[in-house]
Design a protein that fits this description.
- The protein is of the alpha/beta class and 298 residues long.
- It has two domains: 128 residues, HUPs (Rossmann fold), CATH 3.40.50.620; 146 residues, HUPs (Rossmann fold, 3-Layer(aba) Sandwich), CATH 3.40.50.
- It is built from ten helices and twelve strands.
């Protein structure tokens, strides 16, 4: 039987409406709901629709699918696209505190630049960190595009505690907080939103585990307490790649609600016909720690 605490916080599921949810996304949503409800937390839905590849029609289908498998949430859905002034105010404060700097580097520039020892592929090497005003002006003329804003970090690593992975030490570079096109970066938006919504538990796919140290660092910098993390295994295809449309029938309309829920609950080790039954059996310590390989065995 799931134990309930009196925690006043909240968990959340925050899809990006760039494509319909597949069974891997739905499984993660179910797990986020189970973690929240089993600990007495509220459960919130946030639509992360800042990217130009997102659209309202896809978001509406995602919300219908979540309802169809039985998810309930507290309060209205939050849309990031309606919160841009809030993100900009945070960026403006970082600018005023001299905690960001202009960056003119392209992805190609970063990939070709020498990296610090042990820095992961794609980590920012600090190319624009200490540019003089004249060099910044020259870079602006050379690139012909507005700069991104990067956080001026004072660490190279930061540790978080994850319910499934334990203590995790990850690289923290000078990451982007505002893109060159003026769109708030993912790492900034999620930190600001989690704090504003009272979210103190973040359950999501383990492909985002490496993002947690950056986000926890930024949360502390902004005066917020980082949430409790639980990064759960993904659903992969037989080639070990992330699930996609090319892997056949993977969405809720294709699988059907009943079949999809049976597959999800069985993959967790607690066969159930609805979320209430699943919640009664839920035990985070007994969660599978390896990816669920799709297609599932009948």
């Amino acid at each position: 039987m799931a134990r309930v605490s009196s925690s006043p916080g909240a968990g959340r599921f925050a899809p990006s409406p760039s494509a319909d949810l597949h069974i891997g996304n739905l499984r993660t949503a179910v797990l986020a709901w189970l973690f929240a409800r089993s600990t007495g937390r509220r459960f919130l839905i946030r639509v992360e629709d800042l990217d130009e590849r997102t659209d309202a029609g896809t978001a509406a289908r995602q919300l219908r699918d979540l309802e169809a498998i039985g998810l309930t949430w507290d309060g209205p859905v939050v849309w990031q696209s309606r919160r841009r002034p809030i993100y900009q105010a945070v960026v403006d404060k970082l600018v005023a505190d001299d905690l960001v700097y202009e960056c003119y580097c392209s992805r190609k520039d970063i990939a070709q630049a020498p990296r610090a020892p042990h820095a992961p592929q794609g980590a920012y090497p600090g190319t624009c960190r200490d540019l003089t005003r004249s060099r910044r002006e020259r870079r602006r003329r050379e690139t012909g595009r507005p700069p991104a804003l990067r956080l001026r970090t004072d660490v190279t690593h930061h540790a978080v505690t994850d319910l499934l992975h334990g203590s995790y030490h990850g690289h923290v570079d000078d990451f982007v907080v505002l893109r060159g096109d003026g769109v708030p970066a993912y790492n900034l938006a999620v930190v600001v939103d989690d704090a504003a919504q009272g979210i103190d538990q973040v359950v999501r796919g383990d492909d985002l585990l490496s993002s947690a140290p950056r986000q926890a660092y930024l949360a502390r910098l902004l005066g917020h307490r980082p949430p409790q993390y639980a990064h759960v295994p993904l659903v992969l295809n037989t080639a070990g790649k992330r699930l996609a449309k090319r892997d056949g029938a993977v969405t809720l309309p294709e699988l059907g609600v009943r079949r999809a829920f049976e597959l999800i609950s069985a993959s967790l080790g607690w066969p159930a016909s609805n979320l209430a039954e699943l919640l009664d059996q839920f035990d985070p310590a007994a969660l599978p720690r390896s990816p669920w390989i799709w297609p599932a065995t009948p």
